[in-house]
Amino acid sequence: MAHEIETMNQAVKAMVEREGKYLTFTLAGEEYGIGILKVKEIIGMMPVTSVPQTPGYVKGVINLRGQVIPVIDLRLRFGMETMDDTDRTCIIVVEMAGPAGTVMIGIVVDAVSEVLNIRGADIEETPSFGTRLDTAYILGMAKMDGGVKILLDIDQVLVANDFASIQNAA
């Protein structure tokens, strides 16, 4: 009985920790969200300088007010097809926890949607897909308006060995 209560307490704690404001955006027609506290700014597409010897999903770097920031294409990071930029394509500059502290990284998304206040009760655990899929980067699934928004743990989108490649780009 005590184990069941502790498991319930952990589930409630996880639900409360994930509750909050999320910036939502689209990628390949699906809705995603990132905790608003991780978002530093949203900028329109700008010229990206490619850097050789980086993973395919690293678009390159941008100069944002004198600061060189690596930019990754989230579509490519998630194994989706590339898409030509549109007038809605933009870069979300996020602050991520890296091995050597926090780093600023730009992520290219198809379009930014809105900021939503998502209640913990509306967030479900990431489902088990019955295979060994790595879903560590998914915080949970938010049930909204009859659909689902995939909430990302932006710190987990890039794993430690990815950071070395990206830091070398900057």
What share of residues are in beta strands? Answer: 35-45%
Query: Please, how many domains?
Result: 1
Order of helices and strands: HEEEEEHEEEEEEHH
Strand order of the largest sheet: 8-1-2-11-10-9
Report the biggest beta sheet as strand number plus sense, adding barrel if it closes.
6 strands, mixed
Low-pLDDT residue intervals, each spanning 5 or more residues: none
**What is the share of helical residues?**
10-25%
Please count the beta strands (DSSP E, at least 2 residues each): 11
**What's the CATH superfamily, by name?**
CheA-289, Domain 4
CATH architecture group name: Beta Barrel
Question: Which class in CATH terms?
Answer: Mainly Beta
Instruction: Specify the structural class.
Output: alpha+beta
Count of alpha and pi helical runs:
4
Radius of gyration: 17 Å
Shape: globular
Mean pLDDT: 83
Say what the CATH topology is. OB fold (Dihydrolipoamide Acetyltransferase, E2P)
Please state the oligomeric state of the protein chains shown.
Answer: single chain
